[in-house]
Design brief:
Shape: elongated
Radius of gyration: 18 Å
Strand content: 5-15%
Number of strands: 2
Order of helices and strands: HEEHH
Strand order of the largest sheet: 1-2
Number of helices: 3
Protein backbone atom coordinates (compact mmCIF):
# COMPACT_ATOMS: atom_id res chain seq x y z
CA UNK A 1 0.00 0.00 0.00
CA UNK A 2 1.43 3.36 -1.02
CA UNK A 3 -0.75 5.39 1.33
CA UNK A 4 0.81 8.13 3.39
CA UNK A 5 -1.77 7.46 6.09
CA UNK A 6 -3.04 4.16 7.41
CA UNK A 7 -6.13 3.30 9.48
CA UNK A 8 -4.32 4.18 12.69
CA UNK A 9 -3.54 7.63 11.33
CA UNK A 10 -7.10 8.46 10.28
CA UNK A 11 -8.33 11.14 12.62
CA UNK A 12 -11.03 13.68 13.19
CA UNK A 13 -9.34 15.82 10.53
CA UNK A 14 -10.73 13.32 8.05
CA UNK A 15 -14.27 14.06 9.24
CA UNK A 16 -14.45 17.27 7.23
CA UNK A 17 -15.50 15.32 4.17
CA UNK A 18 -19.23 15.00 3.44
CA UNK A 19 -21.04 11.99 4.84
CA UNK A 20 -21.00 9.19 2.29
CA UNK A 21 -21.07 5.42 2.13
CA UNK A 22 -18.50 5.37 -0.69
CA UNK A 23 -15.20 4.05 0.70
CA UNK A 24 -13.30 5.46 -2.27
CA UNK A 25 -14.22 9.06 -1.43
CA UNK A 26 -12.14 8.96 1.74
CA UNK A 27 -8.59 10.22 1.54
CA UNK A 28 -5.70 7.83 2.04
CA UNK A 29 -7.79 4.67 1.58
CA UNK A 30 -6.84 2.90 -1.60
CA UNK A 31 -7.35 -0.69 -0.58
CA UNK A 32 -10.80 -2.24 -0.05
CA UNK A 33 -10.40 -4.56 2.91
CA UNK A 34 -12.19 -5.26 6.19
CA UNK A 35 -9.84 -3.07 8.23
CA UNK A 36 -10.37 -0.04 5.99
CA UNK A 37 -14.14 -0.59 5.79
CA UNK A 38 -14.25 -0.66 9.60
CA UNK A 39 -12.30 2.61 9.80
CA UNK A 40 -14.62 4.27 7.30
CA UNK A 41 -17.73 3.06 9.13
CA UNK A 42 -16.35 4.40 12.40
CA UNK A 43 -15.74 7.81 10.82
CA UNK A 44 -19.22 7.85 9.25
CA UNK A 45 -20.84 6.91 12.54
CA UNK A 46 -19.04 9.74 14.35
CA UNK A 47 -19.92 12.17 11.56
CA UNK A 48 -23.63 11.33 11.76
CA UNK A 49 -23.57 11.68 15.56
CA UNK A 50 -21.93 15.10 15.29
CA UNK A 51 -24.47 16.23 12.68
CA UNK A 52 -27.42 15.36 14.95
CA UNK A 53 -25.68 16.97 17.94
CA UNK A 54 -25.18 20.18 15.95
CA UNK A 55 -28.85 20.20 14.97
CA UNK A 56 -29.93 19.69 18.59
CA UNK A 57 -27.65 22.54 19.70
CA UNK A 58 -29.03 24.82 16.99
CA UNK A 59 -32.63 24.00 17.87
CA UNK A 60 -31.93 24.52 21.60
CA UNK A 61 -31.14 28.11 20.66
CA UNK A 62 -28.18 28.50 22.99
CA UNK A 63 -30.23 27.74 26.12
CA UNK A 64 -27.92 27.00 29.04
CA UNK A 65 -28.58 24.97 32.16
CA UNK A 66 -30.14 27.09 34.90
CA UNK A 67 -30.14 25.85 38.49
CA UNK A 68 -33.60 25.50 40.10
CA UNK A 69 -35.41 25.84 36.74
CA UNK A 70 -36.73 23.13 34.47
CA UNK A 71 -34.00 22.15 32.04
CA UNK A 72 -35.32 19.81 29.33
CA UNK A 73 -33.13 17.36 27.45
CA UNK A 74 -33.43 14.39 25.12
CA UNK A 75 -32.69 11.03 26.68
CA UNK A 76 -33.30 7.44 25.70
CA UNK A 77 -34.73 4.28 27.14
CA UNK A 78 -32.24 1.80 25.73
CA UNK A 79 -34.28 -1.29 26.68
CA UNK A 80 -37.41 0.00 24.93
CA UNK A 81 -35.45 1.70 22.12
CA UNK A 82 -37.34 4.96 22.35
CA UNK A 83 -36.82 8.64 23.10
CA UNK A 84 -37.45 9.99 26.58
CA UNK A 85 -38.05 13.67 27.22
CA UNK A 86 -36.46 14.39 30.56
CA UNK A 87 -36.26 17.38 32.85
CA UNK A 88 -33.86 18.27 35.66
CA UNK A 89 -33.80 21.10 38.18
CA UNK A 90 -30.45 20.70 39.90
CA UNK A 91 -28.35 18.04 38.20
CA UNK A 92 -26.32 18.85 35.11
CA UNK A 93 -25.46 15.67 33.26
CA UNK A 94 -25.95 16.60 29.62
CA UNK A 95 -24.52 19.07 27.15
CA UNK A 96 -27.72 20.21 25.43
CA UNK A 97 -30.72 21.64 27.26
CA UNK A 98 -33.98 23.19 26.08
CA UNK A 99 -35.95 25.99 27.74
CA UNK A 100 -39.26 24.12 27.52
CA UNK A 101 -40.79 20.75 26.74
CA UNK A 102 -42.40 22.37 23.69
CA UNK A 103 -38.95 23.40 22.36
CA UNK A 104 -37.69 19.85 22.91
CA UNK A 105 -40.76 18.39 21.15
CA UNK A 106 -40.15 20.66 18.15
CA UNK A 107 -36.48 19.62 17.95
CA UNK A 108 -37.33 15.91 18.10
CA UNK A 109 -40.02 16.39 15.47
CA UNK A 110 -37.69 18.30 13.13
CA UNK A 111 -34.75 15.89 13.43
CA UNK A 112 -36.81 12.71 13.75
CA UNK A 113 -36.90 10.17 16.57
CA UNK A 114 -35.37 7.38 14.49
CA UNK A 115 -32.43 9.55 13.45
CA UNK A 116 -31.79 10.65 17.04
CA UNK A 117 -31.96 7.08 18.31
CA UNK A 118 -29.77 5.65 15.56
CA UNK A 119 -27.23 8.39 14.88
CA UNK A 120 -27.02 10.28 18.21
CA UNK A 121 -27.51 7.48 20.73
CA UNK A 122 -26.19 4.64 18.54
CA UNK A 123 -29.24 2.42 19.03
CA UNK A 124 -29.87 0.05 16.14
CA UNK A 125 -33.56 -0.12 15.28
CA UNK A 126 -35.08 -3.33 14.03
CA UNK A 127 -37.57 -1.99 11.49
CA UNK A 128 -39.06 -4.90 9.66
Amino acid sequence: MNNEKTKKQLSEDDLIRPCTEDIWSFPYIEEDNAENREAVQSILKRQKHDEVQAELERLAGGYEFTLAKRNWYVDTDVALRRIRKSCTLNFKGNDIYFASKNDLDKAISEIGEERILKDYFGIELNNA
